[in-house]
Amino acid sequence: MTMSHTATVRFGKMFIVGRFRTERPELKPRDKCVVRSDRGRELAEVLTPLEAVADPATVEGVPEILRRATPDDLKLAATLEREHRVRELKFCREEIARLNLRMKLVEADHILGGERIIFYFVSETRVDFRELVRRLAHEFRTRIELKQVGARDQARLVGDVGHCGLSLCCRGWIKDLGGITMDMAKIQKHTADPSKITGRCGKLLCCLRYEYAWYLEGRDLLPPRGTRIETRIGTGVVVDQNLLLREVTIEKEGNERKVVKLSEIAGAPATQPGCTGCDSPRTGEHLDTTVARRLEQDTKILPPAPEPPQFRKMTTLAELPPGTSKEFHIGSFTVALFNIAGAVHAVQGDCPHQGGPIADGTLDGTVVTCPWHQWTFDVTTGSCLSVTGSVLRRYEVRIEGEDVWVKA
After folding, report:
1. Domains of the chain
2. pTM for this one?
3. How confident is residue 267, by pLDDT bands cut at 50, 70 and 90?
4. Phi/psi-derived region of residue 234, left when phi > 0, alpha when psi is between -120 and 50, beta in every other case
């Protein structure tokens, strides 16, 4: 009996992400496949490694991956995109103009199996498009769906790159766009210039929320402006805060200003070394009661101090042939091993961007591409080729016979 597996796949113009079941264990991340979704048969991309399902009853009702995409499937998808989609968009725009509808057509999604064609449009008002649907169905002889989308979804459909020079987050990996507020920009001290804090969609940048929770926590931890505090360098009044670095600027007598770290403030919590060696405070008398209580709870569940680095046997050369990679867990962190032309390299296993599994990425020579957001890294040096300054931590490797040892 073939064992069932599940994997996360992405499909459609809107990059819909879902969990699908399959009985084809040979599928790997980045493979193209054909799935049966609630819209019909579609071309999809596998995002995660397959996970075995012990009880097949638990995946009853879960949509299915039908097969790995064949050359004919890929050719058909290319034809639909290059020829059919162009004709469908042209005809739909002409009908919209004839019917004088106040709507702007954005994109068309022709399902691989031909079960339906989905047209996405934007409009500032409600649109009665029933006559348009009838004309489209008569022309293309299939089921027609018209979906009204907002500015953010419009950017996801037609956008290219953002201010950072990378592909738009909504187009690459964000599933839930969520809500972005001006408070997220203000607390991070971003400029109020709309051209600097708005994205391709004309709305506030999605990346404003990535570090928002860190800034909120910093605001709770640091004494507010105007507070007189005692520090290791004397007493002063807080005149500024650096929420990101957990620092305050105090003004001492004589208008002398000094930058003070949170750990140097009298009554501040003692720092607790974590898995990253950071100085994150855990408790403190001057903190708000609610925040202090939360930090006190965190302190009780802190993991033990990490062991000093030592060589550990990870695998064998037979299990890691040239051109392949594997991921290993050591305590709370991961290590990714790569065999590059017989030389084994070890780097941190999670992408510094959003923690994507580096070992599951596509390896091209010495360059690996993160499967989540397509950041690229040179595994021999750890340097990031997508964003300057970002690096992967590297670990010392030792080969003893056929055994691969890593110091971590």
Report:
1. 5-69 (no CATH), 75-149 (3.30.300), 162-210 (no CATH), 216-300 (2.30.30.140), 311-407 (2.102.10.10)
2. 0.57
3. low
4. left
